[in-house]
Each structure stands twice: as C-alpha cells, then as structure tokens.
Write a structure and sequence with these properties.
This protein is an alpha/beta fold and 523 residues long. Helix content is 42%, strand content 18%. The strands form 5 sheets. Strands 12-13-14-11-10-16-17 form a 7-stranded mixed beta sheet, sandwiched between helices. Helix 9 links the parallel strand 10 and strand 11. The longest helix is centred in the first third of the chain and has 26 residues. The chain is globular. It starts with 6 loop residues before the first strand and ends with a helix. The chain binds nicotinamide-adenine-dinucleotide. The site of nicotinamide-adenine-dinucleotide has 30 residues, from helix 7 and helix 8. The site of nicotinamide-adenine-dinucleotide (NAD) has 30 residues, from helix 7 and helix 8.
Length: 523
C-alpha cells in the first residue's frame, strides 16, 4: 500500500505513552484497496466452505497462540484491563470463529421454498445465497479486536473479501487483525486493512464496497447512510445505546447489584450495551443502592496491565468530558452522587483519563445523563412504582439496543421484556450477549439498522438468489399473450379459485385452464 507522509500516532490512554505510528491511507489507496478486494472476491467466492473454514480456524489458532500479546495491545490502545480484553473480546471472537467456520455451510445451504399451488403446475423454487463481493468494515474503538474481526470472519465465511478501516485510536489493533489473517495464509487482497480517521472511513464508503458494516455513533451512522445512498450500498449500522436495567423488588438483589456494577463499569462504561440507566422498584431502591455502592467502592481503578484492576482509563479526553458534563448536569438537576463523580487523580501515571466509577441516585428521565449516551462509568438510578411505569420509563428513549429485566417472577419478567423496544432484552442477565456469536445483534430505533452475528447477521452478508424452474416446459402459461375474452374469464376464475390457495377450489379450474392453453397453442 503506497502511503502519504501523514500518519496517526497511537497512544496508551492510561499512561500517555506513544505506542506506535501508522500511515493514513490516502483516498486513492482506499479506492485501489476496494478494487483489488473486488478482483480477489471473484476467486474467493468460488472457494469451498471447507477451504474458508480451514483458513478461519488457522487464524483462530494464531490468536490463541498470541493471546497475551494481543490482549496487552488491546489494553494499551484502549485502557481496558488485559483480563477484560481476554474475557470480553478474545474469548467471544474465538467462539464466533469456530461457530461460523463449522456452521456457515449449513446456514447458507440452498433452500427449497414452498410455492403453494404453483407447484401443481410443475414449478419449483429454491434460494441460493451469493456473497456480496467486498464488505467494508468500519468499527468503533471500544471493542477494536472482537467487533471488526468477528464481522470479517463472518463475511469471509460467506464468501466475501473485506476491507477494514479500524477506528483511529486503535489502528495498531486493526493492523494486528490484518497480520493474523496474513499469517493464516489468506490469499492476497482477501483481507485488507486501511488506516486513518473519519476521512479514510468516508473514502471507504465513497469507494463503494458492496456492503458496509458500520459500528459507531448515531451522527456518523447517518453520514454513512448518506454516503452509501450515492451507490445504493447496503449497510448494517450498529449505533449507540442508552440501555435500561429494570429491577423489581422480588429480584435477587445481591446478584442484580453485581450485574449492574459490571454492566455499567466494564470497559469503563464504554460499551454500546452498558447499563446506562437503572430503574428499581421503589420498595427495593434503598437496599439495591447500598449493595451497588458497596460493590463499586471495592473496585480498583488503574492501568490495565495490573491483574487486580477492574476499571481502566477512559479512551480519550473527549469521552471523559462527556461524562463530566453529564455528571455535572445530574448534580445541577438535584440528583445525588453516592460515590465517584470526579476524575481519579490516584489511578495511574496519566491521571486525567481515569474517571471514578460513579453511582447516582434521584435520577429522572428529564436529566441529560438519562437521555443522551454517556459512554462512561456512570450508573444513574431512578425509581418506579408499577410494572407499567417501569416499561414506560425504559422505553422513553431514542435508543433501543439492549435492556435487562430482573425479577424472581419469570412470567412478569417475560411480560415486561416483551414490551420493551430493544434489539436484545435479557432476563436476570446483563450486557454480555454481543459475546454470543450465535445470536443476532442490533438495535431498534436510533440504535441501528440490520443485524450482525447469528443466522440473521450471516444473511446480511449474502444476497438471496431465487432460482425458479418449470419442470414441465411443454405448453405456454395460461397468463401469456395473446389475451382474449376467454383469457379474461380464465383470469377471473383464477382469482376466485387458484388464488384462494385451496386445492379443492382449484380443481374446478382445470377445464377452464385446459381450454385457455389450447387457445394459446392454436394461436
Ligand atoms: P464514531 O462514529 O466517532 O466512529 C466510528 C468509526 O467511524 C471510526 O472508525 C471512525 O474513524 C469512522 N468515521 C468517523 N467519521 C466518519 C465518516 N464521515 N465516514 C466514515 N467513517 C467515519 O464512533 P466512536 O466514538 O468511535 O464509537 C462510539 C460509539 O459507537 C458509541 O455511540 C457506541 O454506542 C457505538 N457502538 C455501537 C455498537 C453496537 O454494536 N451497536 C458497538 C460498539 C460501539
């Protein structure tokens, strides 16, 4: 890849230390990368599933053998603890890779489609699945390994080639993904990494790959949609969230408290499906809050390479300012900061990027930190009185990525879950289902369009092709030309009989049908 003189500097947010420099790929080079990937896709689409699976499994072995090095790189570029990089990125993506390597062939096998009474006319339909060609992947920085790598593995198994533009602050992790695929001996141009910031992402969109898998903010998602519209490029948009956790008084409160703490503070709160709002039934509010505050106070914050650190640095000054803004707004609006609520001056070498895990009570849906995505280590708690109110509060958001419902009464929890508008609702569980590659991931409302992961996610990476066959190509179809009075009468009878789907009614149509066909043969 030819490069311009411009480069990006990757730094460790916890220490401020420079980790490396990467070139900014020019727009021309991005276009060339997509053109080369398209050329390579013709050959790649012809490979057998077994061949693709073997290479994906080889890449998986490489990840396993380099796990510690990879986890340290992820931690250094994002600030998250090394152990969390393993538990929340490496383990899930390894599972995803083996799943799609083993199952893609079966999921994408040609499928017969029932065509009702048309089959009585000797017709058959089947669907075969064709790769799009080139899939452009534009991820965010918060899960810089598992998200682009997982999407790439799925796209590759479906027969596409991929061009990945990692988020600018995690470019080294992105390049590592490219290195893994290269080491696994994927053919040239089947996986390409281009590096740079928003302009490079925009250049990738402008280069018109056949599908774009985007993960990031709503604002950028809209730009991607706009840019994609120029070429009618199909997109999957995985956007922000403001995920509610609803806790009823009959829930296991000890467990709910631990779940809330992990759900709100893992990755320093920078998960799209973080618990961003907690609603607790008023009778349990005091007890749950005490448990949450006590759990939170036990968390050690610091540099991610220390084994006992649970909460690392935030990714950037921009991100920490949003957190400060929201916490300030909570204060001004009369909510109470139970613990945290400030930068942590003692956590690391570069203290400004650590924000203490913060628990807030007295929150209401009118407050900014309950409406806009905070994407930081805050856990605002609000109370509700009734089941209906809990549903209403949870749904009162422009977002709908995930939600969780906590109750000892399963029927109630399932009832509430069914009324929540979100792509995923977990019951007595929180956040982690992005880690289940087998299940679909995606949002309702402004949280996104389309799906990644699961069968639904794999279908996003292929185009269905309908193959329809006439097994008895002996006579013209009754609906062909020329039309006549008899034709008009026949079509009216079709409407009453054939189109009813009833075989019995349609039998009555046979003489009319034969008359019409004879008429066509005579013409
Ligand atoms: P962002 O939108 O700023 O950037 C995301 C990616 O888009 C980056 O690679 C960036 O370089 C690129 N980009 C920026 N401008 C672009 C443009 N004009 N054209 C093309 N590409 C462009 O988002 P972020 O701050 O990196 O990520 C945080 C957001 O991501 C949060 O809102 C979070 O909820 C969301 N997110 C969602 C999911 C999900 O699965 N729904 C997962 C992770 C993160």
């Amino acid at each position: 890849m030819a490069m311009t003189a411009k480069e990006l500097i990757s730094t460790n947010p916890a220490t401020g230390e420079e980790l490396g420099r990467v070139p900014i790929t020019s727009s021309e080079d991005v276009a060339t990368a997509v053109a080369n990937a398209r050329e390579a896709s013709r050959m790649w689409a012809l490979t057998h599933f077994e061949e693709r699976a073997q290479l994906v499994m080889h890449a998986r072995e490489i990840i396993l053998s380099e796990m510690d090095e990879i986890a340290k790189l992820i931690s250094a570029e994002t600030g998250k603890p090394v152990s969390e990089a393993i538990s929340m990125e490496i383990v899930p993506v390894l599972d995803l890779m083996q799943f799609f390597a083993r199952k893609a062939k079966k999921i994408l096998r040609p499928r017969r489609v029932g065509i009702g009474l048309y089959s009585l006319l000797g017709r058959r339909s089947k669907i075969i699945y064709k790769p799009w060609g080139v899939v452009g992947i534009i991820p965010a920085w918060n899960y810089p390994f598992s998200i682009p790598l997982g999407e790439a593995a799925m796209a590759l198994m479906a027969g596409n080639t991929v061009v990945i533009k990692p988020a600018e602050s995690t470019s080294l992790t992105g390049l590592k993904i490219g290195e893994i695929f290269a080491k696994a001996a994927f053919p040239e141009d089947v996986v390409t990494i281009v590096t740079g910031a928003g302009e490079t992402g925009a250049a990738l969109v402008a280069a018109a790959p056949d599908k774009i898998m985007f993960t990031g903010s709503v604002a950028t998602g809209k730009k991607i949609a706009e840019g994609s519209a120029k070429h009618l490029t199909s997109t999957v948009l995985e956007l922000g969230g403001k995920d509610p956790m609803v806790v009823f008084a009959d829930a296991n409160l000890g467990l709910a408290a631990k779940a809330a703490v992990w759900g709100a503070f893992c990755n320093a709160g920078q998960s799209c499906s973080s618990v961003e709002r907690l609603y607790v039934e008023s009778s349990a509010a005091e007890k749950l809050t005490k448990l949450i505050v006590s759990e939170t106070k036990q968390l050690k914050q610091g540099i991610g390479t220390d084994d006992d650190v649970s909460v690392g640095a935030m990714s950037s000054e921009r991100q920490i300012r949003i957190v400060e803004d929201h916490v300030e707004d909570f204060r001004r609006a009369g909510a109470k900061i139970e613990t945290g609520g400030r930068r942590n001056a003692d956590a690391g070498v570069r203290a400004p990027l650590f924000y203490e895990p913060t628990v807030i009570t007295g929150a209401t849906n009118e407050m900014r930190g309950m409406r806009e995505e905070t994407f930081g280590p805050t856990l605002p708690i609000a109370v509700f009185e009734t089941e209906e109110q809990a549903i209403e509060l949870a749904n009162d958001s422009e977002f709908g990525l995930t939600a969780s419902v906590w109750s000892g009464d399963r029927a109630k929890a399932r009832r509430v879950a069914a009324h929540i508008h979100a792509g995923t609702v977990t019951i007595n569980e929180v956040l982690y289902t992005h880690g289940i590659g087998q299940t679909p991931w995606g949002g309702f409302k402004n949280s996104g369009r389309g799906r990644t992961h699961g069968i639904e996610g794999l279908f996003e990476l292929v185009q269905p092709q309908h193959i329809h066959e006439n097994l008895l190509p002996l006579a013209p179809d009754a609906w062909w030309m020329p039309y006549s009075k008899n034709a008009g009468q026949t079509f009216r009878k079709f409407a009453h009989t054939f189109a009813s789907g009833s075989v019995l009614k349609t039998i009555a149509l046979v003489p009319t049908l034969l008359k019409r066909i004879k008429e066509l043969i005579r013409e």
